[in-house]
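Following up on my earlier thread - several people asked me to post the actual chain instead of describing it. Fair enough. Here it is, all 373 residues.
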Amino acid sequence: MTHQGGPLEKTLRRPALVRVAGVAAVLVGALGLFEGVTNLLVQFYGPYHPLYGFYDLAYFVAEPARSFMIPLALLGVWAVVCEGGSTFRVAALSGLAVALLTCIVPPAYILREWLHYGDQILWLGLLDGGIRTMFLLWFWGPPVAAILAGAAASSARRGLGRARFVLLPAGVISLPLISLSLFQWYLGSSSRPGAQGLWSQVVLAAPSIFAALCWIFFGTALYGALPRSKRRLQEERERTEQANLHRARRLYEEAFALKDLSVLDELLDPEVSDEVHHLKGRRNFERSILDLHASFPDLRLSIKEQRARDDTVETRLLLSGTDRGGVLWYPPTGRKASFEASFQDRFREGLLVEHSGRVDMESLRQQLGLPEA
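Reply from S.P.:
Thanks for posting it. Predicted structure:
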């Protein structure tokens, strides 16, 4: 199995982008956590406490900054889900587009209205459907973007691990409808006095705090996705290479050396290509082994060297035997000979698909006393 040039390798060539996106995702979570906790502190201490100054900081600084960080974080999601199918790539790009729309359009529209109407924008906002639409986009855009990107992230099996599942619920629980429904449920189920006080704010803030923690967890996983992907990819490559080495060894020690053709059922692709003899198919491959044993009935074979690289195994052999059946078109000589051969065997999904290489025919002819071809 070869990995060179695959989607994951293209991702591994963008380490800076993915790491920056991981930091952005952590900042999204940190800003959301700051906003949610600040709201709770303000409700607990009241509007006259010095901490109340952080209330405006949370809503007028942290929220816009978080909106601008989300597209950068989702750009990293798109980078690591390139290994998924087209549906996941479309979902990742759709989430990125929604996030960009959210962080650019509403601020630009509201700024334009403010420059035109000044302070009147406060009451115009109650009447102007455009401004209301912009605020709705501001509230609904980030959760929708996170849902789309979270669905795509679930396909990133290598680099994100279990963290690939956290972005989707983080987006769902961030939907304004969730907080409002939870708040209405709390009010309906609470008969205690002061039900609309601090605890009601805790209920309102709980989803956003949980979502913020998910963003932080996801961001740390995104930041470390590439080292984990490289490690997993290397482990997969090593397992594949070791398995192919074992298959190639069986091919030569059992099929070629012992003439055990039954092993070919496990090792050969039905359309295997034998580049040594310019033949194709399992039956022709089997015939070439039988021809070798017909020429050297007492064939001995030993593997001198073997190495694997990706999906190909290179094997250097030493063969020896007595020429009883003739080599090439020459009659049998009855002489003993030892000669080397080097082969390259390419495997795909555990089956041999291509066999190529060369035999040291010059040394073999000299030992058998045969003229040059």
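The two ends are 38 Å apart (CA to CA). That should answer part of your original question.
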